[in-house]
Description:
The protein is an alpha/beta fold and 179 residues long. The protein has a single domain, classed as 3-Layer(aba) Sandwich (Collagenase (Catalytic Domain)). 36% of the residues lie in helices and 21% in strands. It has helices at residues 18-30, 58-68, 114-132, 151-156, 163-178; strands at residues 7-12, 34-38, 49-50, 55-57, 76-81, 85-87, 90-93, 95-98, 101-105. The strands form 2 sheets. The protein has a 5-stranded mixed sheet with strand order 2-1-5-9-8, sandwiched between helices. A 4-stranded mixed sheet has the order 3-4-6-7. A hairpin with a 4-residue loop joins strand 3 (49-50) and strand 4. It binds zinc ion (2 copies). One zinc ion (ZN) binds at residues 127, 131, 137, 147.
Amino acid sequence: MTERQASVLIVKMTPLDDVLLNPAIKHLEELGFKVAVFNVPLHVPLTLYNWKRRQFKAETILDLVKREFSDVPYTAVIAVGYIDAYAEGLNFVFGYSTQRYGTVYVKRLKSDDVLVYQSRIIKEVTHELGHALGLEHCDVPRCVMSFSNSVEDVDKKSMFFCEKCSAKLSSILKAKQRV
Ligand SMILES: [Zn+2]
Ligand SMILES: [Zn+2]
């Protein structure tokens, strides 16, 4: 196991059962990240809700997360919620991220099979953390950084970074340590 020396704050945007979130936390720890969970759910205001689409707008939620957690001492902040969200030009998104901050929307990842649901959450949390740390989409199909347009795509990929993304991540984190 490699010690990546990066810390991640997981924030709940809605109440979320530990059964759903804990496997993702454990996975990030296995990848070498230090993980902390902020247990007070972030209040996502209804003004960010689009009543015509019956979805939240991912860009505005991400802005909210950036504002509320602007000075926390973590390498990255990932907010997770039982929310359906869209982004400009997309019908829906499983997640939406920018430098240091990521959001994961689990509503559309839901499955009757809890193991499948957990596995999808693990993959999307890892994917958005990759983006928050500076990784882009990867064309290796099994790589967790490959783009998922559907839950079938999510199910097909693994929960791990491919060798190329893993190496890139290590050099990004090394560079961050030098700052
Ligand atoms: Zn992505
Ligand atoms: Zn990759």
